[in-house]
């Protein structure tokens, strides 16, 4: 970014979830004091349900996520959001359901262990769910 920008951005928003992890970009932002705001933090389960040809299971039902959620007595969504918070990412989890809003905010009274974080980090990348802005004109 430095070679293109005369002013470094304060925030960079990009798709980030266990099926699409851009750790190089995340680390670059951290090294340059750029906050990261993820979109699609739950892997867009509503969208992915129509695209089983891309990935045969959504993140909310991914075995590692379900296993950790049961162990922590939390929902899979809470585990995914906590994983992002522990990576220092600002999250935007959208929902129109009140109970999901309350659930999405209840993330401060538990943490994922280093082992749990690493298990989630190692989930293989799938395909990018949202369009790549670099290809848009």
Explain what this protein looks like in three dimensions.
By secondary structure, the chain is mainly α. It has one domain (11-128): Alpha-Beta Barrel (TIM Barrel), CATH 3.20.20. The chain has six helices and three strands; from the N terminus they run E-H-E-H-H-H-E-H-H. A three-stranded parallel sheet has the order 1-2-3. Helix 1 links the parallel strand 1 (11-15) and strand 2. Helix 3 packs across helix 4 (76-86). The longest helix has 11 residues, at 76-86. The two termini are 19 Å apart.
Summarize this, please?
By secondary structure, the chain is mainly alpha-helical.
Low-pLDDT stretches: none
Q: Give a count of the beta strands, DSSP E runs of length 2 or more.
A: 3
CATH fold-level topology: TIM Barrel
Amount of beta strand: 5-15%
Helix/strand order, N-terminal first? EHEHHHEHH
CATH architectural name:
Alpha-Beta Barrel
